[in-house]
Each structure stands twice: as C-alpha cells, then as structure tokens.
Amino acid sequence: MKNNTELNKPISNPMLIGAIQVMKAENTPDHRKMFINELVKSKLLSPAIITPPPVPGEDGKMRLTKENKIQFPMLTAPDGKRFFMAFTDMPELKKWKTLDNQQSFVLTFKDYAGMTLKEEDNVSGFVLNPYGENLVISKDMIAALSKA
User: Fold this and answer.
1) Which of 22, 40, 47, 78 has the largest count of CB atoms under 10 Å?
2) Domain range spanning residue 125?
3) Domain annotation covers residue 63
4) Residue 43 burial (10 A CB sphere; 0-12, 13-18, 19+)
C-alpha cells in the first residue's frame, strides 16, 4: 500500500519532458525509442468529470461509489477523430482549463491503452500535452506498443 506522502505527491515527468524536447530537436530512431521508454513508464494526469462529485471519507480521501459516473473529456480533431487528453503535470493540465476543483485521475500508458483499444469505443488515441507539445499517440501506435 502506498503511503500518504506518495499518494499526495504532485505528478511531474521531467524525464519524459526532456525526452520530448530531445526528440523534437532531433527526430532519430534512438530519440523516439527514448521517448517511448519514458512514456510507457510515466504517470500522467487525465481530466475527469465525476457525477455526482465524490465526497471525502473520514480520512479525508475522496471515495468513489457505484453511483459515481466518470467521464474523460476528449478532443475532437477537424476530421472527427476523438482523442483522450494526457498531461505530464498540473501546469500542463491548467493550460486546458484553470479550475480550482478540476477532477483528474493519474493514469499510465497501460490505462490509456485499455481505454483506447476497447472495440466498442471510437477513440483514435490520446494527445500528450495538447496545449503544449501536442504529441498524438495514435491507436495503431498504442496497439503496437501494447504487444511489445
């Protein structure tokens, strides 16, 4: 079980951000591999809409019940393709919306893969830092990395 200090630690991904910058400066197979290696082990923030809003338990932690419905806001490209959003840290998330009570989940690449690769969903992938680096991680790329 994770201790409270670890649970309340802000999400940051300096190695992933560094890998993105290196890859953008010089897009080589080695730099793409370095980016992918960082991406698959990163913890990312995903905005969420939870209705009804969760209530804190006696320990102060938010509790979800069967009544809570969770939606992940999506971006829609001009061609109609839909993408989840993934943010490397809170400053990147705030570029999307600045809300004091913004609900979010910490998700991994594996979580995004599970949500994206569902057969019944019409999702084309996810966008990493859509208001910053704006890197599209396509459904095909997610499928290929999930098999590796």
Assistant:
1) 47
2) 43-147
3) yes
4) middle
